[in-house]
Amino acid sequence: MNSPSMDDLSTALYSAIGLTVRRLRQTATPDEPTLPERSALARLDRLGPATAADLARIEQISPQAMGITLAALEERGLVERHRDDEDRRRSVTTVTEAGREMLRLKRGARARIIADSLAGGFTAEELATLAAAAPLLQRLAEKI
Predict the structure, then answer these.
(1) Residue 33 burial by CB count (10 A; 0-12/13-18/19+): exposed, middle or buried?
(2) For 125-137, how does the pLDDT look when each residue is reduced to its tens digit (9 = 90+)?
(3) Whole-angstrom Cα distance, residue 125 to residue 141?
(4) What's the CA gap between 83 and 89, in Å, rounded?
(5) DSSP single-letter state for residue 94
(6) b vs e for 116-142, b when ≥16 Cβ sit within 10 Å of the residue's Cβ?
């Protein structure tokens, strides 16, 4: 079997991932966090406490934009900011229990949408292929 060209593969992945993200975004409710807010919240949940500057660097946005994002999350009680014990000039942000619960519920709802879609039309072989591809897609996302 011939391997696809990098251009063909990247175009196919971009198209498929983009469509998946757009469809999942359509399931959003008006009171849920925006995509940048969800991304920052999920990052804090995975990595632990971080400064706004650290998060901005990881998310590849300006520190000012991250500050606005964190302020919105803090206002809704999804994160808390505290002075850094080692450097009192810096603030460190952590996810609250309410933030963790919101992430859990949203992940669960979107995962159920994907699970329902997988159950309704994929063969066992196709499911195995998708299971093998999931870690590779995760690694690809982390490298972008």
Answers:
(1) buried
(2) 999 999 999 999 9
(3) 24
(4) 7
(5) E
(6) eeeeeeeeeeeeeeeeeeeeeeeeeee
Residue pair 73/41 in contact by the 8 Å Cβ criterion = yes
Between the alpha carbon of residue 62 and those of residues 5, 66, 89, 143, the distances in Å are 35, 6, 19, 19
Query: Where do runs of H (alpha helix) occur along 2-144?
Result: 6-25, 35-47, 52-59, 63-75, 97-119, 124-143
Least confident of 10-14, 28-32, 91-95: 28-32
pLDDT digits (tens, 9 = 90+) for 44-98: 999 999 999 999 999 999 999 999 999 999 999 999 999 978 877 888 999 999 9
What's the pTM?
A: 0.62
Contact (CB, 8 A) for 79 and 93: yes
CB 82 within 8 A of CB 91: yes
At position 64, the amino acid (one-letter code) is Q
